[in-house]
Structures are given as C-alpha cells and as structure tokens.
Amino acid sequence: MKLITAIIREVQLEKVREALIEAEITRITVSRVSGHGRQRIEEMYRGQRIIPDLIPKIKIEIAVNDAFVDTAVDTILKSARTNGVEGHVGDGKIFIMPLEECIRIRTGERGGSAI
C-alpha cells in the first residue's frame, strides 16, 4: 500500500479529479494549502507590484494498493500539467510514501481491503 500526495494548481483540480475517476480511482482527499517553490507570481496591490510569499495550491491524498500506484501517478501527471507534455514551473509535485496500515473505522477491516 502507498500514500500518494500530489500538490497541484487550484485551476487543475477538476481536470485531475475527473481523470482519476475515469481511471477508477474514486477515493481521494482534497485540501487547500499554500506554499512556494520556484514559481513566482507577481500581483498588483494598490498600484504596487508585490510577490506573495505563499501561493495557494491544492493537496490531493490518495491511499492505493500497489497495483494502482502507476495508474494514479500517470493520471495525475497527464492531467495536472498546464501546457500539455511540457508543463510549466509551478505545476506541482507528487510524493509517494509507503503506507504501513489502513483501518476502516466502520468495520475494523485492515490492510489493502480497507482502502
């Protein structure tokens, strides 16, 4: 089992969500987060140019069995890019971590079947 965490642009959320549903990955958690990397956005505020420290993003978390890791990652990669194959700085990141245990609260079921 793996936990896939993807940080993407806010505007790409619906496209990524629809692509995941088409790939039969329907159980996701979505959070609004903010942060910064190499992406720089300039805004005008009261006539002055400012560069905000933290940029709003979306964090998607998906717990999957090992068989679905490549499918989930490929789906996110294809749907989260803002410029087709090449993409742009700020399109996001994907992190894959081992998931030690999953327990369904309602039934007490454990492991891959609880996902």
Structure description:
The protein is α+β, with helices and mostly antiparallel strands and 115 residues long. It is 19% helix and 32% strand. It has a single domain, classed as Alpha-Beta Plaits (2-Layer Sandwich). The protein is built from two helices and six strands, in the order βαββββαβ. The strands form two sheets. A four-stranded antiparallel beta sheet has the order 2-5-1-6, covered by helices on one side. The N and C termini lie close together (9 Å). The mean pLDDT is 90.
Main sheet makeup? 4 strands, antiparallel
Radius of gyration, in angstroms, nearest whole number: 17 Å
Name the quaternary structure: single chain
Overall mean pLDDT stands at 90
Distance between the termini: 9 Å
> What CATH first level would be assigned?
Alpha Beta
Sum up the overall morphology in one term.
Answer: elongated
Any idea what the CATH architecture is? 2-Layer Sandwich
Q: For the largest beta sheet, what order do the strands appear in spatially?
A: 2-5-1-6
Total domain count: 1
Spans where pLDDT lies below 50 across 5 or more residues: none
Order of helices and strands: EHEEEEHE
Fold-level CATH name:
Alpha-Beta Plaits
Residues in helix, %: 10-25%
Structural class: alpha+beta
The number of helices is: 2
Beta fraction: 25-35%
The beta-strand count equals 6
